[in-house]
Amino acid sequence: MRPRLFGTDGVRGVANKDLSPLLAFKLGQAGAQVLSKLHERPTIVVGKDTRISGDMLESALIAGICSVGADALKVGVVPTPAVAHLTRRFGADAGVVISASHNPVEYNGIKFFNKDGYKLPDAMEDEIEALLDDCEQNIKNPIGPDVGKISIEDGIRPYVDFIKSIVNKDFQGLTVAMDCANGASYRVAPIIFEELGAKVHVINHHPDGKNINVDCGSTHPEALCRLVKEVGADVGLSFDGDADRLIAVDEKGEIVDGDHIMAICGSYMKRKGLLKNNTVVSTVMSNMGLETALKKAGIGMVRAKVGDRYVLEEMINNGYNFGGEQSGHIIFLDHNTTGDGILTGVNLIKVMSDEKKPLSELGQIMKVYPQVLVNVQVHDKSKYAGNERIQDAIVENQTLLGETGRILVRPSGTEPLIRVMVEGEHQDLIDKVANTIADVIKKQLC
Prior knowledge:
The protein is an alpha/beta fold. It has three domains: 11-153, 3-Layer(aba) Sandwich (Alpha-D-Glucose-1,6-Bisphosphate, Chain A, domain 3); 158-365, Alpha-D-Glucose-1,6-Bisphosphate, Chain A, domain 3; 371-445, Alpha-D-phosphohexomutase, C-terminal domain (TATA-Binding Protein, 2-Layer Sandwich), CATH 3.30.310.50. Helices cover 38% and strands 21% of the residues. The chain is built from 15 helices and 18 strands. It has helices at residues 21-35, 54-67, 80-89, 122-132, 135-138, 156-167, 188-195, 222-231, 258-271, 288-296, 308-318, 341-355, 359-362, 388-401, 427-445; strands spanning 11-14, 43-48, 71-77, 94-98, 107-114, 150-152, 175-179, 199-203, 235-239, 246-249, 255-256, 279-283, 300-304, 322-324, 330-332, 371-377, 405-411, 417-424. The strands form five sheets. Strands 1-5-4-2-3-6 form a six-stranded mixed sheet, with helices on both faces. Helix 14 runs antiparallel to helix 15 (427-445). The radius of gyration is 23 Å and the shape is globular. It starts with 10 loop residues before the first strand and ends with a helix. The mean pLDDT is 94.
């Protein structure tokens, strides 16, 4: 039995190898046919990032969509969160984004949204996968006027207007530096901030299909740190390839990660009465400093599994409206259904403007706890969960740390490793704890 094709963020792989045009065609066919149960002739919005393989996969995907009698609405190069919004805006039955986010150019991906802009439920993805294995037998093949058609819509202007309507504020007098990662934000992000009145300085906004995420964007914010200081910007905004995440830079050129952004925006939302259930949703990887900062502000914090998908699930299931990841996936659920780097940027600047404080001062709300990560290579990582000696060592060392530290031990999702992460107030103590647990894992599993 082959492994499940859909991961936590759609179907991903090396383009023209793992993710071939044939697979994209079949995904278009199967996806459209499953969606046709909800609407006889569904319309599917299709967007993409700037990867060179995007045109190839877009053509194959749309051919598959049209071949089963569904209509495709092409919106061009736009951020992933724009596709989620445009699906709702155009009243479509689904949306598809062709992107591999922050991954290198050789990768690409295909991710479906439902009509409300949410990721498809697992049951629907499983139904699509089942059709892939037997497309010729179970896929319909309409002819004549029943074949689907392709329309083209401007995806940029509606998204620009959407973001501007949310912030409802003038950024006159502010200087904003940004790094577009040579990705999907390269046109739309500068337009938004210029129309909001800011003076904008942009780098990495000349995509050639091959330079997406190359030493730039949210995974490499160093160039933006330099630019902020060079031009005297009030804030720097660094997006990833599909602009669903943001890493900010303060006016001193210091990085402001997703944890800091959640602390700043979460406390602001509470003061304004906008934070539902006085709770922020983060993941197990968020620093303890975030939890401490939120607690001081009278805000609860719930930790989900790693992945913005799980953050969103927690938010929907329990009535929360704000959350995200340390990596910069931030979800403002009152406004959009997925991580949105540009929306996060305008909201962060709105806090700066309303509070009349520089970002460096706002960032002091959170003190980062020291953290150590030790990776232990093992023969069989599946044996970790049932090993009592390892579990006992974790409990013993957590008692040693007390309430001022935490331990997270988890198997790697892709490698034969057990990852030991320890946080606490004192570096020497967390080093000792991490190495003690790592030694027990080595003895038990190596």
